Amino acid sequence: MERMPSGEPRWELNFDERGGMSTPDRDRFLDEVAAENPATLFFFSHGWGTAHDAAKSLYDAMFPMLRDAAVAAGLPKPGFAGIFWPSLWFPPTPAVAPAMAGVAKPQSRTAEVSGADIAASLAPGFSDPDQQKALAELGELLDAPGDPAVSTETEAERERVVGRIQELISSIAAPAGDAEPEDSGELSLLLNENPKDAFQRTAKVFGSEGAGAGAQGIGDWFGRAVNGAKDAVRVLSYNVMKTRAGDIGRTGLGPLLADLHTRAPAVRAQLLGHSFGARLVSFALAGVGAPDRSPVTSLLLIQGAFSHLSFAPAQGNPFGRPGALNGFGDRVHGPLLATFSPFDWAVGVWYPRASFLTGAGPEAEADGRWDAMGKDGYQHVDPAADIRIPLGAFDFRPGTYYRVDAGDVINNVKDSSFGGAHSDIRKPEVAALAAAAARPV
Protein backbone atom coordinates (compact mmCIF):
# COMPACT_ATOMS: atom_id res chain seq x y z
CA MET A 1 0.00 0.00 0.00
CA GLU A 2 1.10 3.53 -0.77
CA ARG A 3 -0.35 6.84 0.32
CA MET A 4 -1.43 9.83 -1.67
CA PRO A 5 0.36 13.09 -0.84
CA SER A 6 -2.84 14.05 0.96
CA GLY A 7 -2.69 10.86 3.05
CA GLU A 8 -5.33 8.62 1.48
CA PRO A 9 -4.45 4.93 0.88
CA ARG A 10 -3.61 3.79 -2.64
CA TRP A 11 -3.10 0.26 -3.93
CA GLU A 12 -1.75 -1.24 -7.17
CA LEU A 13 -3.57 -4.47 -8.06
CA ASN A 14 -1.72 -6.56 -10.64
CA PHE A 15 -3.65 -9.28 -12.49
CA ASP A 16 -2.31 -11.83 -14.96
CA GLU A 17 -4.13 -12.70 -18.19
CA ARG A 18 -6.10 -15.48 -16.46
CA GLY A 19 -7.40 -13.24 -13.68
CA GLY A 20 -4.96 -14.25 -10.95
CA MET A 21 -3.80 -11.40 -8.72
CA SER A 22 -0.01 -11.50 -8.58
CA THR A 23 0.66 -8.51 -6.33
CA PRO A 24 -0.08 -7.56 -3.68
CA ASP A 25 -0.91 -10.76 -1.86
CA ARG A 26 -4.70 -11.08 -1.98
CA ASP A 27 -5.21 -11.56 1.75
CA ARG A 28 -2.76 -8.79 2.50
CA PHE A 29 -4.76 -6.39 0.33
CA LEU A 30 -8.04 -7.35 2.01
CA ASP A 31 -6.47 -6.98 5.45
CA GLU A 32 -5.09 -3.55 4.59
CA VAL A 33 -8.44 -2.34 3.27
CA ALA A 34 -10.18 -3.62 6.39
CA ALA A 35 -7.62 -1.81 8.56
CA GLU A 36 -7.85 1.46 6.60
CA ASN A 37 -11.63 1.07 6.19
CA PRO A 38 -12.08 3.78 3.53
CA ALA A 39 -15.71 4.77 3.24
CA THR A 40 -15.36 5.10 -0.55
CA LEU A 41 -12.89 2.98 -2.52
CA PHE A 42 -12.42 3.83 -6.21
CA PHE A 43 -11.26 0.92 -8.40
CA PHE A 44 -9.95 2.16 -11.76
CA SER A 45 -8.95 -0.03 -14.74
CA HIS A 46 -6.87 1.23 -17.67
CA GLY A 47 -7.60 0.21 -21.25
CA TRP A 48 -5.21 -0.85 -24.00
CA GLY A 49 -1.50 -0.42 -23.50
CA THR A 50 0.67 -3.00 -21.75
CA ALA A 51 3.23 -0.75 -20.13
CA HIS A 52 2.94 -0.48 -16.37
CA ASP A 53 4.34 3.05 -16.46
CA ALA A 54 1.63 4.23 -18.88
CA ALA A 55 -1.15 2.89 -16.66
CA LYS A 56 0.51 4.32 -13.57
CA SER A 57 0.69 7.71 -15.28
CA LEU A 58 -3.07 7.57 -15.83
CA TYR A 59 -3.69 6.83 -12.17
CA ASP A 60 -1.18 9.44 -11.03
CA ALA A 61 -3.19 12.00 -12.98
CA MET A 62 -6.70 10.81 -12.12
CA PHE A 63 -6.46 9.83 -8.46
CA PRO A 64 -5.69 13.37 -7.19
CA MET A 65 -8.59 14.67 -9.31
CA LEU A 66 -10.85 11.97 -7.88
CA ARG A 67 -9.69 12.82 -4.38
CA ASP A 68 -10.48 16.51 -4.82
CA ALA A 69 -13.83 15.72 -6.43
CA ALA A 70 -14.70 13.30 -3.64
CA VAL A 71 -13.94 15.90 -0.99
CA ALA A 72 -16.00 18.49 -2.87
CA ALA A 73 -18.89 16.01 -3.09
CA GLY A 74 -18.77 15.35 0.65
CA LEU A 75 -17.49 11.80 0.36
CA PRO A 76 -15.52 10.88 3.51
CA LYS A 77 -12.34 8.82 3.66
CA PRO A 78 -11.72 7.95 0.00
CA GLY A 79 -9.25 5.29 -1.08
CA PHE A 80 -7.91 4.32 -4.50
CA ALA A 81 -6.99 1.07 -6.25
CA GLY A 82 -5.39 1.03 -9.70
CA ILE A 83 -5.89 -2.17 -11.68
CA PHE A 84 -2.99 -3.34 -13.88
CA TRP A 85 -3.61 -6.06 -16.46
CA PRO A 86 -1.78 -7.32 -19.58
CA SER A 87 -3.63 -5.53 -22.35
CA LEU A 88 -2.04 -4.99 -25.76
CA TRP A 89 -0.53 -2.04 -27.56
CA PHE A 90 -0.65 -1.46 -31.31
CA PRO A 91 1.87 0.95 -32.85
CA PRO A 92 0.64 4.53 -33.39
CA THR A 93 -0.95 4.82 -36.81
CA PRO A 94 -1.20 7.96 -39.00
CA ALA A 95 -4.89 7.39 -39.75
CA VAL A 96 -7.38 9.69 -41.43
CA ALA A 97 -10.87 9.63 -39.92
CA PRO A 98 -14.03 11.06 -41.56
CA ALA A 99 -13.95 14.12 -39.32
CA MET A 100 -10.50 15.00 -40.65
CA ALA A 101 -9.88 16.76 -43.97
CA GLY A 102 -13.43 16.07 -45.09
CA VAL A 103 -12.60 12.56 -46.36
CA ALA A 104 -15.55 10.42 -47.41
CA LYS A 105 -14.07 7.16 -46.18
CA PRO A 106 -11.78 6.59 -43.19
CA GLN A 107 -8.25 5.43 -43.92
CA SER A 108 -6.46 3.42 -41.25
CA ARG A 109 -3.04 3.70 -42.97
CA THR A 110 -2.02 0.65 -40.93
CA ALA A 111 -0.10 -0.47 -44.02
CA GLU A 112 2.50 2.20 -43.25
CA VAL A 113 3.42 0.42 -39.99
CA SER A 114 5.93 -2.40 -40.36
CA GLY A 115 5.11 -5.95 -39.42
CA ALA A 116 8.15 -5.99 -37.15
CA ASP A 117 6.84 -2.99 -35.21
CA ILE A 118 3.37 -4.55 -34.93
CA ALA A 119 4.78 -7.80 -33.57
CA ALA A 120 7.09 -6.01 -31.13
CA SER A 121 4.23 -3.89 -29.78
CA LEU A 122 1.90 -6.83 -29.21
CA ALA A 123 4.47 -9.27 -27.82
CA PRO A 124 4.65 -7.93 -24.21
CA GLY A 125 0.95 -8.72 -23.79
CA PHE A 126 1.50 -12.49 -24.17
CA SER A 127 3.25 -14.78 -21.72
CA ASP A 128 2.83 -17.99 -23.73
CA PRO A 129 6.11 -18.82 -25.58
CA ASP A 130 4.18 -20.33 -28.51
CA GLN A 131 2.21 -17.12 -28.95
CA GLN A 132 5.41 -15.10 -28.74
CA LYS A 133 6.90 -17.28 -31.49
CA ALA A 134 3.76 -16.94 -33.60
CA LEU A 135 3.85 -13.14 -33.30
CA ALA A 136 7.49 -13.01 -34.38
CA GLU A 137 6.75 -15.08 -37.49
CA LEU A 138 3.64 -13.02 -38.16
CA GLY A 139 5.70 -9.83 -38.13
CA GLU A 140 8.13 -11.28 -40.66
CA LEU A 141 5.35 -12.36 -43.04
CA LEU A 142 3.58 -9.00 -42.83
CA ASP A 143 6.79 -7.48 -44.18
CA ALA A 144 7.03 -10.08 -46.96
CA PRO A 145 6.16 -7.77 -49.91
CA GLY A 146 9.34 -5.78 -49.39
CA ASP A 147 11.57 -8.52 -48.00
CA PRO A 148 13.76 -10.28 -50.57
CA ALA A 149 14.35 -13.07 -48.05
CA VAL A 150 10.69 -14.13 -48.35
CA SER A 151 9.85 -15.65 -51.71
CA THR A 152 6.65 -14.18 -53.17
CA GLU A 153 7.36 -14.29 -56.88
CA THR A 154 4.84 -16.96 -57.82
CA GLU A 155 1.12 -17.08 -57.19
CA ALA A 156 1.53 -20.22 -55.11
CA GLU A 157 4.15 -18.57 -52.90
CA ARG A 158 1.93 -15.52 -52.34
CA GLU A 159 -1.02 -17.68 -51.40
CA ARG A 160 1.20 -19.64 -49.01
CA VAL A 161 2.27 -16.43 -47.23
CA VAL A 162 -1.31 -15.17 -46.90
CA GLY A 163 -2.52 -18.58 -45.73
CA ARG A 164 0.22 -18.78 -43.13
CA ILE A 165 -0.62 -15.28 -41.87
CA GLN A 166 -4.19 -16.46 -41.36
CA GLU A 167 -3.06 -19.60 -39.53
CA LEU A 168 -0.97 -17.52 -37.13
CA ILE A 169 -3.80 -15.03 -36.50
CA SER A 170 -6.22 -17.89 -35.82
CA SER A 171 -3.80 -19.52 -33.40
CA ILE A 172 -3.63 -16.35 -31.29
CA ALA A 173 -7.30 -15.31 -31.43
CA ALA A 174 -9.51 -15.89 -28.41
CA PRO A 175 -11.48 -19.17 -28.60
CA ALA A 176 -14.77 -18.75 -30.44
CA GLY A 177 -16.65 -20.66 -27.75
CA ASP A 178 -15.86 -17.95 -25.19
CA ALA A 179 -17.37 -15.08 -27.21
CA GLU A 180 -20.66 -13.30 -26.54
CA PRO A 181 -22.61 -12.65 -29.78
CA GLU A 182 -22.62 -8.87 -29.39
CA ASP A 183 -18.85 -8.82 -28.95
CA SER A 184 -17.82 -11.48 -31.47
CA GLY A 185 -18.33 -9.87 -34.86
CA GLU A 186 -14.63 -9.94 -35.69
CA LEU A 187 -14.31 -13.71 -35.29
CA SER A 188 -15.48 -14.45 -38.82
CA LEU A 189 -12.41 -12.58 -40.04
CA LEU A 190 -9.96 -14.03 -37.53
CA LEU A 191 -11.11 -17.63 -38.09
CA ASN A 192 -12.00 -17.46 -41.79
CA GLU A 193 -10.96 -20.10 -44.30
CA ASN A 194 -10.52 -17.79 -47.30
CA PRO A 195 -7.85 -15.24 -46.26
CA LYS A 196 -7.11 -14.17 -49.82
CA ASP A 197 -10.56 -12.61 -50.11
CA ALA A 198 -11.07 -11.78 -46.43
CA PHE A 199 -7.90 -9.69 -46.12
CA GLN A 200 -8.68 -7.75 -49.29
CA ARG A 201 -12.17 -7.04 -47.93
CA THR A 202 -10.58 -5.91 -44.66
CA ALA A 203 -8.33 -3.50 -46.54
CA LYS A 204 -11.39 -2.04 -48.25
CA VAL A 205 -13.34 -1.67 -45.00
CA PHE A 206 -10.41 0.04 -43.24
CA GLY A 207 -9.45 2.13 -46.25
CA SER A 208 -5.94 0.72 -46.54
CA GLU A 209 -6.30 -1.10 -49.85
CA GLY A 210 -4.21 1.42 -51.79
CA ALA A 211 -1.55 2.20 -49.19
CA GLY A 212 1.98 1.00 -48.63
CA ALA A 213 3.19 -0.27 -51.98
CA GLY A 214 5.01 -3.56 -51.81
CA ALA A 215 7.40 -5.16 -54.24
CA GLN A 216 4.52 -6.25 -56.47
CA GLY A 217 2.83 -2.82 -56.48
CA ILE A 218 -0.30 -1.72 -54.70
CA GLY A 219 -2.66 -2.75 -57.48
CA ASP A 220 -2.24 -6.52 -57.19
CA TRP A 221 -4.26 -8.72 -54.86
CA PHE A 222 -1.22 -9.69 -52.76
CA GLY A 223 -0.36 -6.11 -51.82
CA ARG A 224 -3.98 -5.42 -50.86
CA ALA A 225 -4.21 -8.65 -48.89
CA VAL A 226 -1.08 -7.94 -46.85
CA ASN A 227 -2.31 -4.40 -46.14
CA GLY A 228 -5.60 -5.88 -44.97
CA ALA A 229 -3.76 -8.49 -42.93
CA LYS A 230 -2.11 -5.72 -40.92
CA ASP A 231 -5.56 -4.31 -40.17
CA ALA A 232 -6.66 -7.84 -39.30
CA VAL A 233 -3.90 -8.01 -36.69
CA ARG A 234 -5.27 -4.81 -35.18
CA VAL A 235 -8.67 -6.53 -35.08
CA LEU A 236 -6.92 -9.47 -33.43
CA SER A 237 -5.63 -7.16 -30.71
CA TYR A 238 -9.21 -5.94 -30.11
CA ASN A 239 -10.44 -9.52 -29.89
CA VAL A 240 -7.79 -10.64 -27.41
CA MET A 241 -8.18 -7.54 -25.23
CA LYS A 242 -11.97 -7.76 -25.10
CA THR A 243 -11.90 -11.41 -24.11
CA ARG A 244 -9.07 -11.00 -21.64
CA ALA A 245 -10.68 -7.99 -19.96
CA GLY A 246 -13.90 -9.94 -19.46
CA ASP A 247 -12.06 -12.96 -18.07
CA ILE A 248 -10.04 -10.87 -15.59
CA GLY A 249 -13.14 -9.02 -14.45
CA ARG A 250 -15.22 -12.16 -14.02
CA THR A 251 -12.64 -14.45 -12.45
CA GLY A 252 -10.32 -11.94 -10.78
CA LEU A 253 -11.86 -8.64 -9.76
CA GLY A 254 -15.40 -9.91 -9.17
CA PRO A 255 -14.53 -12.53 -6.53
CA LEU A 256 -12.09 -10.07 -4.94
CA LEU A 257 -14.92 -7.55 -4.53
CA ALA A 258 -17.14 -10.20 -2.95
CA ASP A 259 -14.43 -11.09 -0.44
CA LEU A 260 -13.86 -7.42 0.25
CA HIS A 261 -17.53 -7.03 1.13
CA THR A 262 -17.23 -9.92 3.59
CA ARG A 263 -14.01 -8.63 5.15
CA ALA A 264 -14.92 -4.90 5.23
CA PRO A 265 -18.69 -4.56 4.78
CA ALA A 266 -18.72 -0.80 5.35
CA VAL A 267 -16.53 -0.09 2.30
CA ARG A 268 -18.44 1.20 -0.75
CA ALA A 269 -16.72 0.27 -4.02
CA GLN A 270 -16.87 2.53 -7.06
CA LEU A 271 -15.86 0.90 -10.35
CA LEU A 272 -14.30 2.97 -13.14
CA GLY A 273 -12.90 1.63 -16.39
CA HIS A 274 -11.55 3.18 -19.57
CA SER A 275 -11.72 1.58 -23.03
CA PHE A 276 -11.32 -2.19 -22.66
CA GLY A 277 -10.90 -1.59 -18.93
CA ALA A 278 -14.57 -0.63 -18.95
CA ARG A 279 -15.34 -4.20 -19.98
CA LEU A 280 -13.12 -5.51 -17.19
CA VAL A 281 -14.96 -3.67 -14.43
CA SER A 282 -18.33 -4.46 -16.02
CA PHE A 283 -17.68 -8.20 -16.12
CA ALA A 284 -16.64 -8.05 -12.47
CA LEU A 285 -20.39 -7.79 -11.85
CA ALA A 286 -20.77 -11.28 -13.33
CA GLY A 287 -18.15 -12.63 -10.92
CA VAL A 288 -19.14 -10.94 -7.69
CA GLY A 289 -21.98 -13.35 -6.92
CA ALA A 290 -25.44 -12.47 -5.64
CA PRO A 291 -26.40 -8.79 -5.20
CA ASP A 292 -26.03 -9.00 -1.42
CA ARG A 293 -22.38 -10.02 -1.86
CA SER A 294 -21.56 -6.93 -3.90
CA PRO A 295 -20.01 -3.79 -2.38
CA VAL A 296 -20.38 -1.89 -5.68
CA THR A 297 -22.36 1.35 -5.43
CA SER A 298 -21.52 2.93 -8.80
CA LEU A 299 -20.22 1.93 -12.21
CA LEU A 300 -18.63 4.44 -14.60
CA LEU A 301 -17.59 3.29 -18.06
CA ILE A 302 -15.35 5.88 -19.72
CA GLN A 303 -15.36 5.53 -23.51
CA GLY A 304 -15.99 1.82 -23.22
CA ALA A 305 -14.60 -0.39 -26.00
CA PHE A 306 -17.16 -3.18 -25.87
CA SER A 307 -20.73 -3.67 -27.01
CA HIS A 308 -23.37 -1.11 -26.08
CA LEU A 309 -25.81 -4.05 -25.98
CA SER A 310 -23.99 -5.93 -23.20
CA PHE A 311 -26.62 -5.05 -20.57
CA ALA A 312 -29.60 -5.25 -22.94
CA PRO A 313 -32.45 -7.77 -22.63
CA ALA A 314 -33.55 -9.89 -25.59
CA GLN A 315 -36.45 -7.57 -26.38
CA GLY A 316 -35.37 -4.93 -28.89
CA ASN A 317 -31.90 -6.47 -29.16
CA PRO A 318 -30.80 -6.98 -32.79
CA PHE A 319 -29.25 -10.29 -31.74
CA GLY A 320 -32.57 -11.58 -30.40
CA ARG A 321 -31.05 -12.66 -27.10
CA PRO A 322 -29.93 -10.97 -23.89
CA GLY A 323 -26.51 -9.32 -23.72
CA ALA A 324 -23.84 -11.08 -21.70
CA LEU A 325 -24.37 -8.77 -18.69
CA ASN A 326 -28.15 -8.55 -18.80
CA GLY A 327 -29.40 -9.30 -15.29
CA PHE A 328 -26.19 -8.27 -13.55
CA GLY A 329 -26.95 -4.57 -13.24
CA ASP A 330 -28.44 -5.16 -9.79
CA ARG A 331 -24.93 -5.85 -8.48
CA VAL A 332 -24.56 -2.08 -8.59
CA HIS A 333 -26.44 -0.51 -5.68
CA GLY A 334 -26.44 2.89 -7.30
CA PRO A 335 -26.23 4.40 -10.79
CA LEU A 336 -24.59 2.90 -13.88
CA LEU A 337 -22.98 5.47 -16.20
CA ALA A 338 -21.31 5.30 -19.62
CA THR A 339 -19.68 8.25 -21.36
CA PHE A 340 -19.68 8.71 -25.11
CA SER A 341 -18.16 11.30 -27.44
CA PRO A 342 -18.41 11.94 -31.19
CA PHE A 343 -14.70 12.79 -31.12
CA ASP A 344 -13.70 9.26 -30.08
CA TRP A 345 -12.75 7.67 -33.39
CA ALA A 346 -11.32 4.51 -31.82
CA VAL A 347 -14.78 3.34 -30.75
CA GLY A 348 -16.88 5.47 -33.10
CA VAL A 349 -15.16 4.64 -36.39
CA TRP A 350 -12.70 1.75 -36.13
CA TYR A 351 -14.29 -0.48 -33.49
CA PRO A 352 -17.57 -1.04 -35.38
CA ARG A 353 -15.62 -1.61 -38.58
CA ALA A 354 -13.62 -4.34 -36.85
CA SER A 355 -16.84 -6.07 -35.82
CA PHE A 356 -18.72 -5.37 -39.04
CA LEU A 357 -16.25 -7.60 -40.87
CA THR A 358 -18.59 -10.44 -39.99
CA GLY A 359 -20.12 -9.67 -43.39
CA ALA A 360 -23.66 -9.72 -42.04
CA GLY A 361 -24.85 -7.21 -44.62
CA PRO A 362 -25.74 -3.50 -44.66
CA GLU A 363 -28.71 -3.96 -42.31
CA ALA A 364 -26.32 -5.07 -39.57
CA GLU A 365 -24.36 -1.85 -39.91
CA ALA A 366 -27.54 0.24 -40.01
CA ASP A 367 -29.03 -1.14 -36.78
CA GLY A 368 -25.88 -0.38 -34.79
CA ARG A 369 -25.43 -3.89 -33.48
CA TRP A 370 -21.64 -3.59 -33.62
CA ASP A 371 -21.37 -0.20 -31.93
CA ALA A 372 -19.51 0.36 -28.68
CA MET A 373 -20.40 1.94 -25.34
CA GLY A 374 -18.11 4.85 -26.09
CA LYS A 375 -20.09 5.69 -29.22
CA ASP A 376 -23.58 6.15 -27.71
CA GLY A 377 -23.72 4.57 -24.23
CA TYR A 378 -26.01 1.81 -22.95
CA GLN A 379 -28.67 0.78 -25.46
CA HIS A 380 -32.03 -1.00 -25.06
CA VAL A 381 -31.88 -0.83 -21.25
CA ASP A 382 -34.50 0.33 -18.78
CA PRO A 383 -34.64 2.58 -16.85
CA ALA A 384 -32.29 4.85 -18.81
CA ALA A 385 -31.58 8.57 -18.85
CA ASP A 386 -29.47 10.97 -20.89
CA ILE A 387 -27.21 13.58 -19.28
CA ARG A 388 -24.29 15.75 -20.33
CA ILE A 389 -21.02 16.84 -18.76
CA PRO A 390 -19.82 19.20 -17.38
CA LEU A 391 -22.35 18.18 -14.78
CA GLY A 392 -24.23 20.67 -12.65
CA ALA A 393 -26.11 19.78 -9.49
CA PHE A 394 -27.57 16.35 -10.12
CA ASP A 395 -29.01 13.50 -8.07
CA PHE A 396 -28.49 10.06 -9.56
CA ARG A 397 -31.11 7.34 -9.16
CA PRO A 398 -29.99 3.83 -8.19
CA GLY A 399 -30.45 1.16 -10.82
CA THR A 400 -30.65 3.68 -13.67
CA TYR A 401 -28.44 3.50 -16.77
CA TYR A 402 -27.11 6.94 -17.65
CA ARG A 403 -25.84 7.74 -21.14
CA VAL A 404 -23.39 10.58 -20.57
CA ASP A 405 -22.66 12.87 -23.53
CA ALA A 406 -19.03 13.87 -22.93
CA GLY A 407 -18.43 15.65 -26.23
CA ASP A 408 -17.86 18.99 -24.51
CA VAL A 409 -15.07 17.46 -22.37
CA ILE A 410 -13.61 14.43 -24.17
CA ASN A 411 -12.85 16.14 -27.47
CA ASN A 412 -9.09 16.57 -28.05
CA VAL A 413 -8.34 14.84 -31.35
CA LYS A 414 -4.87 16.33 -31.83
CA ASP A 415 -2.93 13.71 -29.89
CA SER A 416 -4.02 10.69 -31.95
CA SER A 417 -4.96 10.64 -35.61
CA PHE A 418 -6.26 7.09 -35.15
CA GLY A 419 -8.10 7.18 -31.82
CA GLY A 420 -9.07 10.84 -31.80
CA ALA A 421 -10.22 11.77 -28.30
CA HIS A 422 -10.43 8.18 -27.07
CA SER A 423 -7.79 8.73 -24.37
CA ASP A 424 -8.63 12.38 -23.65
CA ILE A 425 -10.04 11.47 -20.25
CA ARG A 426 -7.69 13.05 -17.72
CA LYS A 427 -10.20 15.73 -16.91
CA PRO A 428 -11.56 17.17 -13.64
CA GLU A 429 -15.05 16.92 -15.16
CA VAL A 430 -14.66 13.14 -15.48
CA ALA A 431 -13.51 12.92 -11.87
CA ALA A 432 -16.45 15.07 -10.77
CA LEU A 433 -18.82 12.72 -12.60
CA ALA A 434 -17.35 9.72 -10.77
CA ALA A 435 -17.62 11.45 -7.40
CA ALA A 436 -21.21 12.54 -8.02
CA ALA A 437 -22.14 8.97 -8.94
CA ALA A 438 -20.43 7.69 -5.77
CA ARG A 439 -22.57 9.74 -3.41
CA PRO A 440 -24.88 7.60 -1.25
CA VAL A 441 -28.39 7.43 -2.69
TrEMBL record:
InterPro entries the record matches: AB_hydrolase_fold (IPR029058)
Protein name: Serine-threonine protein kinase
Organism field: Amycolatopsis acidicola
Lineage: Bacteria, Bacillati, Actinomycetota, Actinomycetes, Pseudonocardiales
